């Protein structure tokens, strides 16, 4: 079919008339609040305030998933792990690429509407790659945090900047890598820099103006409760960053955030005390940022066990009683169930080999069993799991996440002095390998040849039952995985891995239903959405975002 | 769909050695005690560290990389190969006196060489490195290395091609491969035996593996890629394909000297 181009007065008048009468569909707070009712869109980083990454869409089923066809691919123009999470609003996908570029593309064809580039200040310091995990939307705006610790609002339709404010001091190595969380009329972000001796915080900004609404430090200052969990001036540069998007319970008006490691990372002896609220989940009032409760997973951490996992919320009947719970597979190797009204510890069990602790007491506090110098610690430095988003399916009642099995490191603690804007690590680590000098797992995968093998660790997708804290089934991969999870109302579980396979698994029993080799590491969760009655699934592998659908 | 993957005690890709597992163990134990002779002592490294700071760091820098084209800490030299060459340069000088001649005491000289060989790590392992010319002869002759290994286009392919080994392995790891192969065996190099559902038995060495497939070189030097769903059994051996060498410490030092010259195409 050929379309003729008609450029003339009539066309022009028609065009202007349309623009005046149709102010683009808005995304008011109410839509985000009820995002589970519009599964055709993916409105927040974690697919809704409960962060379940569960979609009501059910067009793609265990029976027809093998018919999935590639619809389009978007090639990234920059190198490095692509950890971004797409947001989809009414057929338009908003996705970021390194270092801080936002792209608006047609979700059916992958063709571009606009592209906005922010060039971070040259002195921006990032420990582990120029990552950005995506944007948030509200009304007619898109919000992005940047590597040089700024928060930028863009016009959602034109892609031009509306405001740009400082979140943290770039000279002190503050940064923002997470996708912001929008609650009501505020945009909330946390800061990275846990390897550089920052003092972490979560801060909220007025969505209209960018003006700071509140800021809550993750390390209490003098006079505040729990300040005495630090000695001397350690609190001033004790880390505790927040670099993963939190969750929100509108009934309780609480936002939940996972807090990262204390600094210096590996020398716990240098910072005596529990080092609150490092390695904790904190519940903050959504309007004021006031701390309502906290639960610390790893006091006085010596292993870099950031608790930056996504707080996954569910309202379920838990052991006979209806309860508002939070599920948490922590980097420290334990799986937790927590009451999210009070922060009460309900259950906690190891899901991988754990030897830094012999168990949890009745309050969920770990019993420490530090290993002798030179001996391996399980789980290793990258943890039993890490920041990659899990999923909870209300249909199966199971919690799904990527675990690293049989992975250990040998830690070395060293005295280190804090110097502003410099690495503050307090030692180092090496990955346990079967022969001296053998290749081992890296922070990401850059080599298409796996010459370290599963002997230094491998991925295990685990389905956990929050009722028991136990694993129901698992699906192993040969390499480790930093892939997140997506579940759907047709009991499909989509996930990836470092090997570049995109898998569809039966969420009920762990059977592999379909997979395709996309060739590059998958280091984020897939998302699903629908346009014109067709369900799509998008996943990023290597430097390409691929979108699949059934033939239509 | 899960294939049973088993780890066996010993499985050789080289049929002649298939049942020599027990022999290997005892020979290994005998050699383990001898390893000390292949290395400089930690006292020597310690002494060398002091000598280096006092006498050499001024020109070569604290990391050993300040003189153009030379990086002492990673063994990057202009002319030097063996420890004997090092001894000569330090005692006689080089570059028309730009590198002065030093008259060090014997233990100081030995120490500073040990420190260089330990990669500037006071706690590192400093392996003795001998004469590469003699090493090449041993590699091709008495040491029997060339019976299994390929170098620069010559030799069998079933064992790893060593044309580039000097660039990718440390002297300590090369030494272990010769004197105590069991402790040096890299997981990916473990011999494997697979039986397919088409009743083919494949013996080989892995090149790569993922959840669903494995790539290998088989005993007939063919590159094979197999789907795990097609496998009936898949055994991975814990034991290396070869025994510890019977060469003397001096000979091993020479072979290491030779291996370190293998750095791909020059």
State which percent range the strand residues of chain A make up.
35-45%
Percent of residues in helices of chain B comes to 25-40%
Strands of the biggest beta sheet of chain B: in what spatial order?
A: 1-6-2-3-4-5
Which word captures the global form of chain B? elongated
Total domain count of chain B: 3
Tally of alpha and pi helices of chain B: 9
Q: Specify the CATH architecture of the largest domain in chain B.
A: Orthogonal Bundle
Could you walk me through the main structural features you see in this protein, from its secondary elements to its overall organization?
The mean pLDDT of chain A is 94. The longest helix of chain A is centred in the N-terminal third of the chain and has 13 residues, at 9-21. Chain A has helices at 9-21, 29-33, and strands spanning 54-55, 69-75, 87-89, 92-97, 101-106, 112-117, 136-138, 141-145, 150-155, 161-166, 181-183, 186-190, 201-206, 212-217, 247-249, 254-258, 280-285, 291-296, 312-318, 321-329, 334-339, 345-350, 357-360, 366-368, 391-393, 398-405, 409-413, 427-431, 458-465, 470-476, 485-488, 492-495, 501-506, 512-517, 527-531, 534-541, 544-549. In chain A, a hairpin with a 2-residue loop joins strand 7 (136-138) and strand 8. Chain A is 3% helix and 36% strand. Chain B is an alpha+beta fold and 266 residues long. Chain B folds into three domains: 2-117, Cytochrome Bc1 Complex, Chain D, domain 2, CATH 1.10.760; 132-185 and 242-259, Orthogonal Bundle (Cytochrome Bc1 Complex, Chain D, domain 2), CATH 1.10.760; 187-236, SH3 type barrels, CATH 2.30.30. Helices cover 35% and strands 14% of the residues of chain B. Chain B contains nine helices and six strands. Chain B has helices at 21-34, 42-60, 83-92, 106-117, 132-140, 165-168, 171-179, 181-184, 249-259; strands at 5-8, 191-196, 201-209, 213-218, 223-227, 231-237. Chain B has a six-stranded mixed sheet, with no helix packed on it. In chain B, strand 3 (201-209) and strand 4 (213-218) form a beta hairpin. In chain B, helix 7 (171-179) packs across helix 9 (249-259). The longest helix of chain B is centred in the first third of the chain and has 19 residues, at 42-60. Chain B starts with a strand and ends in a 7-residue tail after the last helix.
């Amino acid at each position: 079919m050929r379309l003729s181009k008609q450029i003339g007065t009539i066309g022009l008048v028609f065009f202007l008339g349309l623009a005046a009468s149709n102010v683009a569909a808005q995304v008011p707070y109410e839509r985000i609040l009820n995002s589970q009712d519009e599964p055709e869109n993916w409105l927040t980083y974690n697919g809704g305030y409960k962060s379940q990454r569960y979609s009501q869409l059910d067009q793609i089923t265990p029976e027809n998933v093998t018919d999935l066809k590639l619809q389009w691919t978007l090639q990234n123009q920059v190198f490095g792990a692509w950890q971004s999470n797409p947001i989809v609003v009414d057929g338009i996908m908003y996705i970021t690429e390194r270092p801080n570029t936002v792209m608006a593309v047609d979700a059916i064809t992958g063709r571009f509407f606009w592209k906005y580039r922010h060039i971070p200040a040259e002195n921006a310091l990032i420990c582990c790659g120029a990552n950005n995990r995506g944007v948030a939307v509200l009304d007619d705006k898109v919000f992005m945090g940047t590597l040089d610790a700024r928060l930028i609002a863009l016009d959602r339709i034109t892609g031009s900047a509306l405001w740009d404010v400082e979140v943290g001091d770039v000279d002190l190595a503050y940064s923002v890598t997470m996708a912001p969380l929008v609650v009501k009329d505020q945009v909330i972000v946390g800061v990275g820099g846990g390897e550089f001796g920052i003092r972490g915080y979560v801060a909220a900004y007025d969505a209209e103006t960018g003006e700071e609404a509140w800021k809550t430090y993750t390390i209490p200052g003098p006079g505040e409760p729990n300040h005495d969990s630090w000695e001397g001036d350690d609190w001033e540069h004790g880390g505790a960053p927040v670099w993963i998007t939190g969750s929100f319970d509108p009934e309780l008006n609480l936002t939940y955030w996972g807090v990262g490691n204390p600094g210096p990372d590996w020398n716990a002896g240098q910072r005596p005390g529990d080092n609150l609220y490092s390695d904790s989940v904190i519940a903050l009032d959504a309007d004021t940022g006031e701390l309502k409760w906290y639960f610390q997973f790893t006091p006085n951490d010596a292993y870099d066990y950031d608790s930056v996992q996504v707080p996954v919320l569910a309202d379920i009947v838990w052991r006979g009683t209806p309860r508002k719970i939070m599920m948490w597979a922590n980097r420290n190797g334990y799986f937790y169930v927590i009451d999210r009204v009070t922060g009460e510890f309900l259950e906690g069990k190891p899901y991988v080999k754990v030897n830094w602790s012999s168990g949890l007491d009745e309050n969920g506090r770990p019993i420490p069993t530090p290993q002798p110098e030179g001996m391996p610690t399980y789980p290793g430095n990258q943890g039993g799991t890490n920041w990659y988003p899990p999923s909870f399916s209300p249909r199966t009642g199971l919690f799904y996440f990527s675990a690293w099995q049989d992975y250990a490191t040998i830690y070395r603690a060293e005295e280190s002095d804090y110097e502003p804007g410099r690495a503050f690590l307090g030692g180092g680590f090496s990955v346990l390998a079967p022969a001296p000098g053998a290749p081992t797992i890296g922070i990401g995968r850059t080599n298409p040849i796996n010459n370290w093998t599963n002997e230094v660790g491998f991925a295990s997708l685990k389905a956990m039952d929050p009722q028991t804290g136990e694993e129901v089934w698992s699906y192993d991969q040969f390499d480790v995985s930093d892939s997140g999870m997506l579940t759907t109302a047709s009991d499909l579980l989509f996930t990836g891995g470092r090997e570049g396979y995109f898998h569809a698994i039966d969420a009920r029993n762990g059977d592999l239903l379909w997979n395709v080799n996309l060739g590059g590491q998958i280091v984020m969760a897939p998302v699903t959405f629908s346009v014109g009655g067709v369900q799509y699934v998008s996943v990023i592998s290597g430097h390409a975002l691929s979108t699949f659908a059934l033939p239509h | 769909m899960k294939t049973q993957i088993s780890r066996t005690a010993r499985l050789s890709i080289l049929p002649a050695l298939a049942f020599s597992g027990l022999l290997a163990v005892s020979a290994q134990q005998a050699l383990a005690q001898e390893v000390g002779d292949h290395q400089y002592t930690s006292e020597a490294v310690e002494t060398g560290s002091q000598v280096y700071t006092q006498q050499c760091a001024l020109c070569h820098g604290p990391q050993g990389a300040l003189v153009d084209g030379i990086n002492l800490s990673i063994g990057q030299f202009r002319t030097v190969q063996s420890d004997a060459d090092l001894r000569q340069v330090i005692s006689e000088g080089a570059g028309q006196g730009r590198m002065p001649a030093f008259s060090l005491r014997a233990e100081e000289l030995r120490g500073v060489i040990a420190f260089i060989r330990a990669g500037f790590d006071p706690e590192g392992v400093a392996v003795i490195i001998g004469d590469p010319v003699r090493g090449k002869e041993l590699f091709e002759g008495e040491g029997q290395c060339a019976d299994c290994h390929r170098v620069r286009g010559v030799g069998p392919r079933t064992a790893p091609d060593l044309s580039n080994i000097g660039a990718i392995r440390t002297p300590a790891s090369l030494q272990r491969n010769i004197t105590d192969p069991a402790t040096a065996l890299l997981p990916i190099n473990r011999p494997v035996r697979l039986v397919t559902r088409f009743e083919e038995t494949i013996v080989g060495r892995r090149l790569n593996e993922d959840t669903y497939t494995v790539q290998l070189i088989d005993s007939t030097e063919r590159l094979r890629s197999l789907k795990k769903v097609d496998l009936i059994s898949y055994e991975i051996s814990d034991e290396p394909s070869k025994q510890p060498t019977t060469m003397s410490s001096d000979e091993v030092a020479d072979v290491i000297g030779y291996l370190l010259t293998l750095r791909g195409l020059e």
